[in-house]
Amino acid sequence: MTAPRAIIIGGGLVGPLAGCMLRQRGWQVTLLEKRGDPRAQGYGGGRSINLALSHRGIRALAEVELDRRVLQDAIPMRGRCIHDAQGDVTMQPYSARSSRFINSVSRGGLNCTLLEAAEQAGVELMFDVAIDAVDCDSAGVRLGSGAALEADLLLGADGAGSQIRSVMADAGALVAEQVMLPHGYKELHIPPGDGGSWQLAREALHIWPRGGSMMIALPNPDGSFTCTLFWPKESEPGAHERVSFATGSADVVRQTYPDAAARMPSLEDDWSNNPVGALGTIRCDRWHMGRTLLIGDAAHAIVPFYGQGMNAGFEDVRLLGESIDRGESVEAFARKRKVDADAIADLALHNFIEMRDHTASPQFARRQRRRQRLSKLFPWLQTTYEQVTFTDRPYSLALRSLRSRGMIFHGLLAWQVTSWTILACLLVGLALSRMS
Ligand SMILES: Cc1cc2nc3c(=O)[nH]c(=O)nc-3n(C[C@H](O)[C@H](O)[C@H](O)COP(=O)(O)OP(=O)(O)OC[C@H]3O[C@@H](n4cnc5c(N)ncnc54)[C@H](O)[C@@H]3O)c2cc1C
To answer: What is the pTM of this model?
Structure first.
């Protein structure tokens, strides 16, 4: 019997991992990437320099024995280090269990490692490829060079701006909804200190929450930090004190984050030269057409505030492998997985509000500590953050627990108010009866 064939469009993060997964199952795989080979010419991805890798991503990497290779260059981030507007700095651990942390990894390094692993596993890699036409029903691709390829499965792993998704939408196979955030992002840089030292606490994800906007910083192995501003693109009418990219400048960065800006010698250049990236959520009502399936950002791009876009894409790959092993159709895989992709999209939007508006409050920190201690004692009471970041629990169940926690909280409040009222009435009644 001849081996089944797959064509993967996109050699970013998810495409090469999918290649490794399919090779593990004996498929013949060709991967087509429109850019050049980053291993030869350096990484020019143009998006965030580093990423938070957590349990779901690590588990998918482990399936193809890549977890150790990737984690050897990672920096653990054990909690959020909050820099408030008064200049106070506090650490909020992600979990009461010390074994639970997230990892800062370099996007470029990870991309090269994945491409290398895919090639070693026997995936045929083709770079600088232009795709002229796609037939989703027959998993056929015609290249700009005139060459034609055909397969049993075509995977669209070509990111948020997916060409394959557009072909499917134009053919009426799916409807894609894209909702952009009013915020954009810009990267700034904190270099290593003297002798390669760390200018901020090393094993943390730093956050400067400012209500309505924020800056974060992730550590890099060379001692530097990559900072990302998440600011509104336009200024809101009347909100003169709020920052925005339309009215902002390097001086506004200095005024808003003085402790960080004092460590940014290239602030003026970074502000002028680094673009403002767009952030949004893409939801498709279907992810498949004929023999073609979308995965990763092509199917479900999300805003980056839960650090889950790549992790979710890697989990797609693991679950697709299990689905193939069960002999399921791509349609069955997509139908099941979409529920969880929709859930993490909602959770990511919710976490933006939590990070920028709530993390600075001492009540939030106390509440988190209490919940984490409870979750250590009773594992079934894990915080939503822990469920999303440190377990494989389906995202849809994590979202449900967040929503029901809200309902329980309001229920308890109502119950507490009612029971205090009843108790007060009883006491007044008792006092009156004694008096009479
Ligand atoms: C600011 C920011 C911070 C983020 N931080 C995190 C984080 O901390 N943790 C996390 O898990 N996720 C994070 N993400 C999300 C993460 O970057 C994405 O989810 C992830 O890159 C998706 O991988 P992908 O392979 O699906 O798409 P991509 O990484 O975009 O790869 C798509 C590839 O397809 C190629 N391509 C596109 N069109 C074609 C074509 N027509 N033909 C051939 N090739 C094509 C592209 O060149 C690219 O190489 C962040 C995103 C942003 C914007």
So the answer is: 0.91
The CA 143 to ligand 1 mean position distance, Å, reads 22
Please write the tens of the pLDDT for every residue from 234-249.
987 655 557 999 999 9
**Residue 48 Cβ < 6 Å to ligand 1:** yes
Asked whether 74 lines ligand 1 (CB < 6 A), one says no
> Domain residues of the chain, as ranges?
5-76+105-178+280-355
Pick the CATH number of 5-76+105-178+280-355 from 3.40.50.1820, 3.30.420.40, 2.40.128.710, 3.50.50.60: 3.50.50.60
- Looking at the CA of residue 130, tell me the nearest atom of ligand 1: 42
Residue minimizing CA distance to atom 19 of ligand 1: 309
End-to-end Cα spacing for the chain: 97
Q: Is 47 in the pocket of ligand 1 (CB under 6 A)?
A: yes
Q: Exposed e or buried b for every residue in 390-401, given b needs 16+ CB within 10 A?
A: bbebbbbebbeb
Query: How far, in Å, CA of 318 to CA of 21, rounded?
Result: 8
Tokens of 339: 């529920």
d(CA 361, CA 42): 42
C-beta 388 within 6 A of ligand 1? no
Mutate to test the pocket of ligand 1, among 13, 107, 220, 388 (most ligand atoms within 8 A of CB): 13
Q: What is the pLDDT of residues 20-65, one digit of tens each?
A: 999 999 999 999 999 999 999 876 644 568 999 999 999 999 999 9
